[in-house]
Amino acid sequence: MIALDRRSLLRGLGGAIGGASVALAAGCAPMEGQLLRAVDTHPDGYPTVEAVKYMGQLLRERSGGRLGIEHYAGGVLGQERDALEITIFGGIDLNRVSLAPLNPIVPETLVPGLPFLFSSTQHMRAAMDGEPGRAILDALEPHGLIGLCFYDSGGRSFYTTKRLIERPEDLRGLKIRVQSSDLFVEMVRALGGNPTPMDFGEVYQGLMQGTVDGAENNWPSYESTRHFEVAPFYSETRHVMAPEVLTMSAITWKRISAADRALIRQCAQESIPVMRELWDAKVEQSRAAIVASGVRIAAPDPAPFQALVQPVWDRFVTTPTMRKLVDDIRAMDPA
Ligand code: GTR
User: Fold this and answer.
1) Distance CA 335, CA 141 (A)
2) For 218-260, what is each residue's pLDDT tens digit?
3) How far is the CA of 172 from the centre of ligand 1 (A)?
4) Which of 71, 78, 180, 268 is a good FRET partner for 170, with 20 to 30 A between their CA atoms?
């Protein structure tokens, strides 16, 4: 494994962009062929990381070893927002992020994050596999990113250091960590909590030190970050079901032949069912581990939460394109 850190990557930005040049900038021998650098805030073993590694294996096999992926997991090259900027500037080739850090950059990415938009996993998958998903991936390109595919992220739910959230009133007076997105800030405010934007990597400490009283995330993230140790009250509100997205730097993309682009798209596509299988298993395993750890769990009625979020929709669904996305996604609800 070649040791790269953020500073080396940024230094590498001065020259031609690509695996070999960055490796040289980091003082390493050039790599054979094109090794795409991928990053993820999650650690090895997490479904998003393993899905991208699987995509790398496919790429290697089908290109006769000419293309491949070198994965930097666990946020070693920076928190999501910073790593995304580096990706836009071409210092990272592939970046798997949540949609939230893209919200300030690409308005269309707000739509899947609208609270209670999706009625089920099936609904989310159908919409993201279909035309709305395609339109959102395409909307990234003018902003320096190529959208390759969506991955599951389950339902985000509240957890706190203090108490179960069974009704919106229970959020009153609680500082809730949110991702760096106004949509999440406004949503938590509308539900009655005090939103506090914070990087993912700082949440454990924030919860421990009382900078925040709670956060919101899916079962696998709640478990893998060990937030459950310090915030042992989890309430399955599933208020947001926005998926993850695998992005590629448009700078790298421009340097790749049409045939290789098609291959990359195809391998990303084929990583989706693999990710979904890993995801479903991971959700079950995480939930079981958390139940066994003694965390208190509630499954609140979503209706009172849902009743408060209309102003959030009104504020963020602002263009005809976004309205069409919302309508199309709603029309795909199998429920
Ligand atoms: C997770 C997501 C991460 C990160 C994190 C967060 O569910 O997979 O990419 O965005 O949430 O809350 O910051």
Assistant:
1) 33
2) 999 999 999 999 999 999 999 999 999 999 999 999 999 999 9
3) 24
4) 180
175 and 196, same domain (yes or no): yes
For a substitution probing ligand 1, which of 217, 247, 282, 283 has the most ligand atoms within 8 Å of its CB?
217
Are residue 178 and residue 80 in the same domain, yes or no?
no
pTM of structure: 0.91
Q: Are residues 48 and 193 in the same domain?
A: no
Report the amino acid identity of residue 56: G
Q: How far is the CA of 200 from the centre of ligand 1 (A)?
A: 7
| Distance separating alpha carbons of residues 107 and 316, to the nearest angstrom | 9
Is 132 among the domain residues? Answer: yes
217 and 167 in one domain? yes
Residues 121, 258, single domain; the answer is: yes
Range of the domain at 304: 156-241+287-331
Q: Separation of 77 CA from ligand 1 center, angstroms? A: 15
Read off the CATH number of the domain in which 209 is found: 3.40.190.170
Average pLDDT, the chain: 92
Q: What is the pLDDT of residue 19?
A: 39
Q: What is the pLDDT of residues 2-13, one digit of tens each?
A: 344 554 544 444
Q: Pocket of ligand 1, candidates 48, 79, 80: which has the most ligand atoms within 8 Å of its Cβ, to mutate?
A: 80
Q: Is the beta carbon of 247 within 6 A of some atom in ligand 1?
A: no
- d(CA 223, CA 158) in angstroms, rounded, equals 13
Residue 177 CA: nearest ligand 1 atom is 12
Alpha-carbon Rg of the chain, whole angstroms?
A: 20
- For residues 77 and 6, what is the distance between their CA atoms, to the nearest angstrom? 5
Number of structural domains, the chain?
2
